[in-house]
Write a structure and sequence with these properties.
about 150 residues; alpha+beta; Arc Repressor Mutant, subunit A; Alpha-Beta Plaits; four-stranded antiparallel sheet; 4 strands; about 40% helix; elongated
Length: about 150
């Protein structure tokens, strides 16, 4: 269900996606609102669930994660129990940044980060051995990120 938002809400959401550290005063000025009106709109957008949270975007390379992989995972079964077991287990692997249930050749695609080749080998073994119901794994290494966007087009 898409919620109805106006042009000012859209400007406010775009501004937040660019830099959520701006003060309510600065955000309001940027969209033509007083600080109190901006604060009320932000609270309403949060209550409607349009704003789920605020996060810092970290530099993976500077934190030692120089490698990124997209890993396709096929399971031995697509039963609800098998899917739930896999999804629960993948939550406990911090290197897995994203996990998507897919329609197509693979059951899941994971986006993972690793520090080096040895780190990737350890992660690959962990995925193969510890995740329930894994039948096959196919890994693709990202050479370079061409476009990365955390925001949505609003």
């Amino acid at each position: 269900m898409t919620l109805q938002i106006d042009a000012v809400d859209r400007k406010l959401l775009r501004a937040l996606q660019e830099d959520s550290r701006k003060s309510v005063q600065v955000l309001g000025e940027g969209v033509g609102l007083s600080a109190s009106a901006c604060h009320r709109r932000l609270k309403a957008l949060e209550e409607q669930g349009l704003i789920e949270g605020y996060r810092a975007v970290l530099n993976a390379g500077k934190l030692g994660y120089s490698m990124q992989f997209f890993i396709e995972v096929g399971l031995t079964s697509q039963s609800e129990t098998a899917l739930e077991a896999f999804e629960t287990a993948v939550q406990d692997i911090p290197e897995v940044l994203e996990c998507h249930l897919m329609a197509g050749q693979s059951d899941y695609i994971l986006r993972v980060v690793c520090q080096d080749h040895d780190d990737f080998e350890r992660l690959h073994r962990r995925l193969s051995a510890r995740l329930p119901g894994v039948a096959r794994i196919h890994s693709n290494m990202s050479i370079r990120t061409v476009k990365a966007r955390t925001g949505l087009p609003v």
